[in-house]
């Protein structure tokens, strides 16, 4: 795939990601300037692209680990195909086509019309998006809330960051469907705060968001079961490639939906999530070649708390306007604090990653 791991530094794996980051942030800033003609608009677009990239990287941390574990079973040819064709599908499929489909469905227009409006008539596009915002917020908020709660309502989860809260959630996870009941109660509360058609729209969109999450869970379980029965050849070839692509779509869904909590600009969403996808690709290559997994204990917790915050904000946005900067800072701050807590834990407990020892055992 690439030069031997022993002759390549950690930063060496992220060369393309850094290049895409510089180009993407510059393009995002240019879009902000063209849209508003002000430095404030330029800075806002730049900031949102950066936050989306950070959020995508954090939310896709598990994705990189799963990809690395599966890639070890694949032949070198299919490894290369996944890391080239796969990233194209991930960036252009899930980060561009999929958000466009959400906009088209929510606004009741075809995807081509949605794309033309986004590119040529941003004011009209913004108006349609404003009309569709209630449904998007309800759908996305419900999906994200299920993603976050499912992580914490897990009786097998034994690593806790905020112990007093997470231990209780893990304890109540033995009650079947507790997270679904919690979300449905919130859906009923928020729908009761809206009037007439808005209440009905919120309720229907929330139910679709819940059903989508459950279907993704069913699909993931089916793929896991099917993977166990695959032949060795299938695991190392197209079967594994297809498996990883569908898993990537499942992992990416929460990031794509969460992006609508930050901005409704399709191109900024694509840029920010595309930057993040490049880092996930680089991280996957590094994990495979160096035989090591990142070991920040609480980083995953911070990402899922960020998901929960986004879900609550999306619900609140159906009742009031919440500035995008506040939304972005909340998630980024949580991820940063969780990373800092992980580093402190490693220092206190003398946790260090010894690559030579790992390779000696392999």
UniProtKB/TrEMBL annotation:
Q: From which domain of life does this come? A: Bacteria
InterPro entries, per database record = DUF475
- The portions of this protein that span the membrane are 12-33, 39-61, 82-107, 132-153, 173-194, 206-225, 266-286, 298-316, 322-340
Any Pfam family: DUF475
Keywords associated with the record: Membrane, Transmembrane, Transmembrane helix
PANTHER family in the cross-refs: MEMBRANE BOUND PREDICTED REDOX MODULATOR, SLL1022 PROTEIN
Please identify the protein, giving its name as recorded.
DUF475 domain-containing protein
Give the species.
Rhizobium lusitanum
């Amino acid at each position: 795939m690439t030069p031997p791991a022993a002759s390549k530094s950690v930063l060496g794996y992220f060369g393309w990601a850094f290049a895409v980051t510089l180009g993407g942030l510059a393009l995002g800033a240019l879009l902000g300037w063209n849209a508003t003609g002000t430095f404030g608009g330029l800075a806002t677009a730049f900031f949102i692209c950066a936050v989306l990239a950070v959020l995508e990287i954090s939310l896709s941390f598990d994705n990189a680990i799963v990809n690395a574990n599966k890639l070890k079973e694949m032949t070198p040819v299919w490894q290369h195909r996944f890391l080239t064709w796969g990233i194209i599908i991930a960036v252009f499929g899930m980060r561009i086509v999929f958000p466009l489909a959400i906009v088209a469905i929510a606004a009741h227009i075809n995807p081509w019309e949605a794309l033309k409006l986004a590119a040529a008539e941003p004011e009209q596009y913004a108006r349609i998006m404003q009309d569709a915002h209630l449904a998007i917020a309800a759908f996305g908020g419900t999906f994200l809330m299920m993603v976050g709660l499912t992580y914490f309502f897990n009786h097998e989860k034994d690593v806790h960051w905020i112990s007093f809260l997470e231990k209780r959630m893990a304890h109540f996870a033995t009650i079947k469907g507790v997270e679904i009941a919690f979300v449905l109660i919130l859906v009923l509360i928020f729908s009761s705060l809206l009037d007439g058609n808005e209440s009905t729209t919120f309720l229907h969109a929330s139910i679709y968001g819940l059903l989508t999450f459950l279907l993704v869970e069913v699909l993931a379980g089916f793929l896991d079961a099917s993977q166990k029965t695959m032949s060795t050849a299938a695991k190392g070839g197209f079967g594994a490639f297809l498996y990883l692509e569908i898993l990537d779509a499942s992992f990416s869904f929460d990031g794509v939906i969460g992006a609508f909590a930050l901005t409704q600009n399709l191109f900024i969403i694509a840029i920010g999530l595309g930057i993040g996808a490049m880092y996930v690709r680089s991280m996957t290559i590094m994990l495979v070649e160096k035989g090591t997994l990142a070991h920040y204990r609480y980083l995953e917790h911070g990402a899922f708390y960020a998901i929960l915050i986004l879900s609550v904000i999306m619900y609140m946005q159906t009742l009031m306007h919440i500035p995008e900067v506040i939304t972005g800072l909340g998630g980024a701050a949580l991820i940063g604090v969780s990373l800092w807590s992980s580093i402190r834990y490693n220092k206190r407990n003398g946790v260090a990653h010894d690559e030579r020892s790992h390779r000696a055992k392999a």
